């Protein structure tokens, strides 16, 4: 035996050489401000373009006297930002969004986990969940009001009914695309039931799950504002209520201000999701063009 | 020392052998496959993948399995790994821990190399300090100590297979099943991995069942080359490799035996054509 080992030149040196040649060169890390600028200048440009088009429409005289231009609407927004009412309304709406989304997340997780693992349930309920997702969020508003009355519960109900199917669907899609080879590998190394979920199925479905979350948030947000425009609770202003008031008073500048606030929230949430998504993609090596994965 | 002499030696007498807490029962094979048949589907459409396959592998033996397409090589490994049940017959690894390696590394893409190697030990519930220590040891064994924090996409194909090997060893497996593990690698990387695998096999006294379609690779690595027929898979020949190690893929003896095996393999394929 000893003679064998000494006769073989150790492969370490050759391996080290190959490894060095094979190693993926580290990506140059950009500084935070560089990245922030790279991410924000296209958005700023888009904003300027949007304002320019809006001004052009105003100057063309379309719906003159009804449709204000940026020069009239933006000061109204600025003014509203200095009132307690807008901030109070924003607080109510965001609170409802967070509570409703948390409920939808819990329900979507349970339903998604059950449906993705139990075959007859998958066959029976799978397409129903997709169908639920295609329902316009406004249809749940009358349903919720009749069921719970015109109150916060009805609004939360609308968020859950619109967001939960998307979240469940994300989980199901992720489980569907779990590579069978990984499952085989996981099972041979002794992952079972709980540990299989924790160490393999959950992390493997994470990208699809985050996509589902993002979609769930978008649907839930639609449902929330639709609900708020209809369900008006005295002494509890919300963004939807402000929008409804603007409609009653034909206050176009006010309505545009609220829409801009809603857009800003949408953009902020989108940025947050993108941040999470990019982190995941980088870890998985999906963004690495030089990788040999 | 000849291979046969090494094989007949008790494990304690082999230099460099790891001490085992429970030595396997002396004389009993590490893997016993007896009259195993496996068919997929039912009735007319049933496909007989394996037909009465019998094979025993001694503890510490390196057996290579070779056959044309459709010989049920992968099916056989799945049965030994316990991932599937035979239609009839028996498969036993005598209660030994069995690890499986594939042509693709099947590493978890969201984990670093070290965390991938750690995974079987987490599944087994080993304490963290012990896991850390063994991960470092295993990565050094496959010469990847410097790449512990890299993710699979940052590693080359050969490096990924070495991580997969370390992960298989992390299961404390005595029996290693390998399903064309080097099939997708370039020749130089493959040759080096042969040396790495041979070294680990020798030092750890592993029992290896290695499936390949490359005849010279089978001769280069195996103590014995087992030839399987296709559709259904049957054992149709065994070729003991009697010359010593280390061998090279291009050594005259390796090539000579490979030519013999290839001729036999060709007969088998021709039989299907007529």
Describe the structure.
The complex is a heterodimer of chains A (293) and B (274). By secondary structure, chain A is mainly alpha-helical. Chain A has one domain (69-283): MetI-like (MetI-like fold, Orthogonal Bundle). Helix content of chain A is 78%, strand content 0%. Chain A has twelve helices and no strands. In chain A, helix 4 (70-80) packs across helix 12 and helix 5 packs antiparallel against helix 6. The two termini of chain A are 39 Å apart. Chain B is built from eight helices and nine strands. The radius of gyration of chain B is 19 Å and the shape is globular. The termini of chain B are far apart. Helices cover 37% and strands 21% of the residues of chain B. In chain B, the strands form two sheets. A six-stranded mixed sheet of chain B has the order 5-6-7-3-8-9, with helices on both faces. A three-stranded antiparallel sheet of chain B has the order 2-1-4. In chain B, helix 3 crosses helix 4 (128-141). Chain B has helices at residues 3-8, 73-81, 113-124, 128-141, 157-169, 187-204, 215-221, 252-273, and strands spanning 31-40, 47-57, 62-67, 88-92, 98-101, 175-179, 207-212, 224-228, 235-240. Chain B has 274 residues and is of the alpha/beta class. Chain B folds into two domains: 29-96 and 174-274, P-loop containing nucleotide triphosphate hydrolases (Rossmann fold, 3-Layer(aba) Sandwich), CATH 3.40.50; 107-172, no CATH class. At the A-B interface, helix 1, helix 2, helix 9, helix 10 and helix 12 of A face strand 5, helix 3, helix 5 and helix 6 of B.
Secondary-structure element string of chain A: HHHHHHHHHHHH
- Find the structural class of chain A using helix and strand composition: mainly alpha
Tally of helical segments of chain A: 12
Overall pLDDT of chain A, averaged? 87
The CATH topology of the largest domain in chain B corresponds to Rossmann fold
Please state the CA-atom Rg of chain A, rounded to the nearest Å.
26 Å
Biggest sheet statistics of chain B:
6 strands, mixed
**Order of helices and strands of chain B, N to C?**
HEEEHEEHHHEHEHEEH
